[in-house]
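ingest -> validate -> predict -> emit
validate: passed (alphabet ok, no gaps, 223 aa)
predict: started
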Amino acid sequence: MLPMGSLFPYGDQNRRGAPVAWVTITLVALNAVVFLYMLTLSPARLESFVYRFGAIPAEIGHGQDLYTLITSQFVHGGLLHIVGNMLFLWVFGDNIELALGHWLFLAFYLGAGVLAALAQVVASLGSSIPAIGASGAIAGILGAYVVLFPTREVRVLIVVVPTRVSAVGFLGAWALLQLFSGVASLGVPAVQGGVAVWAHVGGFAVGLAIGALALRGGRQDRA
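emit:
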């Protein structure tokens, strides 16, 4: 899940009259549909679903079930998991979509998710625990956002108090937290589920790189 402690973003600056970010909207809708379907499954069928479509590091490491690098991005482990991820996607995704263009954004989103999942696989080789969720792909969006729109104000709830912070301040602090958590997890056996922090770190790094390329092309002006 992406939210940082008791800090929750709920909006940012958007250009008036900007085109509809239909890819972002579609991604949110698809994730919601999959989650609603999961709610209809019995506990046994739900576990089977997660193991079938989640990215299991031990299997990915042996070149098996590579399709799960994509499908795992649309599987979430609970209400807080999906709400947290979709909140970040909704707030930050539209600006990156309009900066890159719809189809390039979709390719970037899925590609960042795949590379993020691979980063988690490398960090937890041998683990049989499925990695699920869109947070790696969304971390890519956050990395691109920091590069393209560092000074934009992000509306954030601190517990229940609304305030505004710069994108680079909020997302930079989030990225550092993920990095520190990832380093702290090195060498710790993956015996139970948890936050895939290395997927966050990997996705954010991909986003930084793509954001830098987009910045050179002047794409930030489109959003």
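The CA atoms of residues 3 and 58 lie 28 Å apart.
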